[in-house]
Amino acid sequence: MADGKKVFTDSEFVELQIERYRPRYLKDESEFKKCTTNAKRMNFFLNNEKEVAHIKSKIQQIKPHVTKSDVRASELRKLGNVQFQNKNGKDALKLYTQSLSFAKSDEEVSFAYGNRSAALFGLGLYEECLEDIDRAFKHGYSESRSAKLFKRKEDATKAYSSRKKVVKVKTYEIPQSEMNPSIQSARNCIEIQTNEKYGRHIVASRDIAIGEVLAVDKPYAVELQADISSDPFLFCCECLKNCYNVIPCRNCNEALYCTEACKAKAFQNYHKYECLILPYVEELLGIKFDFWLFSLKITLLAMTEEKNDETMYRSDRYKEISELEGHSNADPPEKTYVWTFLSASIFILIKEKIKIFKEFEVFEEKFKELFLYHQQVLKVNNVTIFSWHKNGKFYTSVTGLALYSLYSLFNHSCYPNTFWNTCGSTMVVRANLPIKKGEQCFISYGPYFADDDKTERQERFQTLYRFTCECRACQENWPKVTFSPAIVDRKFIKQVIKKLTENQALPPPRYILSLRKGLEIAYGILDGTS
Ligand SMILES: C[S@@+](CC[C@H](N)C(=O)[O-])C[C@H]1O[C@@H](n2cnc3c(N)ncnc32)[C@H](O)[C@@H]1O
């Protein structure tokens, strides 16, 4: 709880809004149900002058939260100093980064970099320390204090060069000779097929062995998630890379990047617009909902992207995103009503603050359509990215959301023959069962048969994805396995495998084999040996 306010999850918030707007919905129900496209739904609210005037006046009354302030930066830096003196290096690092994100003048920016370099040095992050020292000097670090910084630079350079080389975890890359000729992110062992039952789906174009890589997919876009368990000060907003010395946007204090290149790319493609509404969203709606911001980002990318008519299925192009499944007419109308109303409010905010439609005048109607459509696409296709930390024990935290074009073509099975993991935001899909040529390659959208009862799983698939799963585990109603697959503990894995092998009522040996192989690969990746 922050500032005594209750913090809602996104779905709690939407449920609450449905309750709140129910009387209004019941009045509008018959007219709203006539709106069969996203643009018509948006216009249901946006053509209502009284409504628009009310939202505009609400926006005018908002006092945007402060994004840059040297006073705040200095306060945070001093708090950082206290933590640093108390040898709480990580807390100091976080406060110095916060200070940096608020800093306005070159002087305050240089102090924040300078102090953060000390915290980085203390944590043994010498490369990052040296980068921050250079940044401090670049921003005119005061000459009277620079002796300390020169000394730190010398020490960090020495420590860095004498340190044992750290093996960096590398993502698998598909060798040139194995690249798929028609799918940008795939290996030459799969193809895209379409049928009535499954829509588009992925099929093995040759036999695939356990552990083989099927795809290395890069996201079309990502959204850093300010989840309670994650730390937004340690990840790049553009690529979700873990980074201890992030650099802030020059205008706002919310976007932080791992490099100048990521910062420039984001600014050019979407952040120069997004940045202008960030200080208002939470005040306007009562929550800063990741899906809205993510949808806005994708809509902006769609508007700014250069045309590319190549026939290959690409992961770095909007065309593929524009064709993803969104089940646009499948939500209960009451939910769609509330969702659209809130999106229309954001649309008015965008129009008021970004003035984007001066630049893209002809796109206004398209923008409304896409803004809602992308939210629907995200509900069906978004992937939550976790990051692994090794701090005594392994643990994971949510880093962000990502939208992948190729991953989005894999259908679900509760007993899947592939699994995925990520390195940064790059997704690697591998086989965890042998897959015969012509067989469909399935992935799990969350629950495996071992996690939840069939009824629970089927309910979830119907609500979120609108299909009935007919995988073998569902057809044969395999029992739930009473363990949580906490693959973070080797002793625990051994117990799990033992239990699975002993109990004849449990799944077939193929599954055990694949579980073991999957875990070995996962460990290999974590250990940096794979
Ligand atoms: C991420 S998309 C997968 C690609 C999709 N088939 C397409 O044509 O774009 C998810 C959607 O695919 C369909 N789907 C996924 N798994 C399925 C399955 N096992 N059986 C039938 N439909 C499935 C559902 O409509 C679901 O909402």
Question: Can you describe this structure?
Answer:
By secondary structure, this protein is mainly α. The protein folds into three domains: 7-63 and 261-381, no CATH class; 70-162, Serine Threonine Protein Phosphatase 5, Tetratricopeptide repeat (Alpha Horseshoe); 200-218 and 404-527, Beta-clip-like, CATH 2.170.270.10. Helices cover 49% and strands 12% of the residues. The chain has 18 helices and twelve strands. Helix 4 (70-85) runs parallel beside helix 6 (106-122). The protein is globular and about 75 Å long. The structure holds S-adenosylmethionine. S-adenosylmethionine binds at residues 198-201, 325, 380-381, 408-409, 411-413, 465-467, 469.
Count all strands and give the number: 12
What's the overall average pLDDT, rounded?
86
* Secondary structure category: mainly alpha
Report the bound ligands by name, code or SMILES.
S-adenosylmethionine
> Measured on Cα atoms, how large is the radius of gyration?
25 Å
Give the ordered list of helices and strands.
HHHHHHHHEEEEEEHHHHHHEEEEEEHHHH
Poorly predicted runs: 483-488, 503-508
Q: Walk across the major sheet and give the strand order.
A: 3-11-10
Number of helical regions: 18
Instruction: Report strand %.
Output: 5-15%
* C-alpha geometry: globular
Give the end-to-end Cα distance, rounded to a whole number of Å: 41 Å
Number of domains: 3
What composes the largest sheet? 3 strands, antiparallel
